[in-house]
From TrEMBL, chain A:
Catalytic reactions on record: GTP + H2O = GDP + phosphate + H(+)
GO terms of molecular function: GTP binding; GTPase activity; signal recognition particle binding
Protein's recorded name: Signal recognition particle receptor FtsY
The protein's Enzyme Commission number: 3.6.5.4
Species of the source: Ornithinibacillus halotolerans
Membrane association type: Peripheral membrane protein
Assembly and oligomerization: Part of the signal recognition particle protein translocation system, which is composed of SRP and FtsY.
Gene for this chain: ftsY
Lineage start: Bacteria, Bacillati, Bacillota, Bacilli, Bacillales
TrEMBL record, chain B:
Subunit architecture: Part of the signal recognition particle protein translocation system, which is composed of SRP and FtsY.
Compartments where located: Cytoplasm
Protein name according to UniProt: Signal recognition particle protein
Notes on the domains: Composed of three domains: the N-terminal N domain, which is responsible for interactions with the ribosome, the central G domain, which binds GTP, and the C-terminal M domain, which binds the RNA and the signal sequence of the RNC.
Gene Ontology annotations of biological process type: SRP-dependent cotranslational protein targeting to membrane
Reactions it catalyzes: GTP + H2O = GDP + phosphate + H(+)
Matching Pfam families: SRP54, SRP54_N, SRP_SPB
Amino acid sequence: MSFFQKLKSKFKQENQEEVSTKYKKGMEKTRKSFSGRINDLIARYRKVDEDFFEELEEVLITADVGVNTVMDLIDELRFEVQRRNIKDTMEVKEVISEKLVEIYYGDDNEEIEALNIQSSGLSVVLVVGVNGVGKTTSIGKLAHQLKAEGKTVMLAAGDTFRAGAIEQLEIWGERAGVEVIKQNEGSDPAAVIFDAIKAAKSRNVDVLLCDTAGRLQNKVNLMNELAKVKRVIEREIPGAPHEVLLVLDATTGQNALNQAKTFSEATDVTGIVLTKLDGTAKGGIVLAIRNEMNIPVKFVGLGEKAEDLQKFDANAFVYGLFADMLEEQAES
Amino acid sequence: MAFEGLADRLQNTIKKITGKGKVSEQDVKEMTREIRLALLEADVNFKVVKDLIKRIKERAVGQEVMESLTPGQQVIKVVKEELTELMGGEQSKIAVSDKPPTVIMMVGLQGAGKTTTTGKLANLLRKKYNRSPLLVACDVYRPAAIKQLETLGGQLSMPVFSMGTEANPVDIAKKAIEKAKEDHHDYVLIDTAGRLHVDSDLMQELTDIKELVNPDEIFLVVDAMTGQDAVNVAESFNEQLDVTGVVLTKLDGDTRGGAALSIKAVTGKSIKFAGMGEKLDQLEAFHPERMASRILGMGDVLTLIEKAQANVDEKQAKELQEKMRTATFTFDDFLDQMSQVKKMGPLDDLLAMIPGANKMKGLKNVQFDEKQLAHVEAIIQSMTKKERQDPSIMNASRKKRIAKGSGTNVSQVNRLLKQFEEMKKMMKQMTNMQKGKKGKGFKMPFNPF
Ligand SMILES: Nc1nc2c(ncn2[C@@H]2O[C@H](COP(=O)(O)OP(=O)(O)O)[C@@H](O)[C@H]2O)c(=O)[nH]1
Ligand SMILES: [Mg+2]
């Protein structure tokens, strides 16, 4: 079975029609430009030659995949093309998406994408990232989702710095119908989180989602503050935080790699939430992050509403990128 | 490594050329390859890189090797000139309408930093131009966006016009202008909701506001960390609204910021201001040349010097120079200098501007350095007045006393004394050397030890 067929049948089998439709719709803009360019490329080049690879390199770089990863990928493609003796560009299309998924998973399996929630007792999720990437919004969406799954959820207003941040989280709390633990603007975030853990324990909450203030990763003091917040959580609950989610904006370029590295050093990031994928940005940087570091993407943000958060699925992601082509193939 | 500066990357290529009389086509090809990678890693748009490389090739081939510059340096110089040229001159003027109030509209993607920038701009208008702005909350979508602007208004003691989240942004803008006229505000700053450039309904809303209030400036706020998509975003906003300028935010991060370059190259709209921090006074005029250095990974020495200039009083600097020249520089002067360096901002911010500093071993762990600085300070403070003026009187018992008083040990004291003597010597040499040359007469007022 060809890779594309596998991808398609996967959605049929697992009754993932709905997921794939959401990805397709959410990533409409992203996809159009990406698969459009690959299609165009393939139409223009009949033969797989150096010029073809050079232009392919361009397409990938404009998707923010990042120079190093693109070079790796192109090298592997060259090798594959030779090994399988591929001459026709049509056939390369499949190899490209296959390699993309491969880079993504590496040696891991698909379980890496699941959120680590304890079956009993309190699970703590710490949400971190630079300013304006969508931390608070993602927490709102996640609260909505977890509650729909029957969990009891509580939010901690750990962004005590940005004007209006506490109120913003409170509104999301209201929308999802979950309690928000807060203190005044300007108070110590570690103290807020400490309070929230106490409250979550006493009220037998399943999941505590902790918001934090946005911070640029090169601010040493602010990164230390974050490490302190994490230590407070560790001290209060053995094994916590169960997840440290780094929120990345899909429009971010190569700096996202710096973000992933530095935030990981400070807080041992366990997963990524990739937001704003409903724009035209392609979020190729997650491939670079997977290629250079071992952090999986767990969720993607596809809009501003509570429902606009999807569990990440690399197959669906690549499916989203190539959806037009898949349909085309099915028709022909 | 992904984030090495261009200067480092070119080292190897350069080595091959040194000693040659002329830069050959092959040399240029190799170098432009490195430049291309460096620019792409800095998020400069792909198309922009292509054009740029073409121009650089044309200019670089056949260059005579000048005595003062290695071929590599020459090529970097060409690249830097081209980059600076692309970004245009410095333009941080804000429009003034002959019929007040002057209206400024802030637009951009979600999370770019519009609201904070609105606050900063209001602060700048009042501080620098003595204006009285009215802030207008037109973001009725994002939860607590109005509250955020109101809080900023509160911090600035400036009025904020809002009509809640039920009102239509177009109506809000219209009423705000009436209100501004009534209350004699000479500027109106309209904060709009973040939106995707492909969201046609929300983009139409901006057009409606624009047509109604006829703004004198429309600033597109762009996150400096944006990747390849920056040009698509900027092009769409510009096509729809014909923006008058760009504000680049979060430049205090460690991004190379290639998006900056691409936006100007593609839309022709200048970057006017840069956000340099979360505080309301951290909005600065944008400097294309410094940005060019940064994109190439060459550090930002100019900003560092300017920071030093802004924080050091001219007269003090002159006196200091004289002391340095005559080697009568004392430990008291040294302490003075240290406090001046501190005024310039956190040490890690300053270090980030020094080319290559991030790679210097001892500088890697900045906190360690701050501690070191505190030790030095404590040692000097434990000296008597006489010892500070004339360290030559220092003997074993004095050193012991100082070490005890400062919570350090004698070898630390010794090290400082030795460094101080060397520094004095070096200063004397340097100042005498510089006396021969003309120039602005400004010397770095401190000595990084
Ligand atoms: N279009 C879109 N906007 C988003 C998404 N996630 C967050 N946002 C918007 O991005 C802006 C910043 O989000 P916020 O949660 O305040 O960021 P924070 O500073 O990281 O907490 C808000 O206007 C959000 O509505 C997404 O997936 N798609
Ligand atoms: Mg937030």
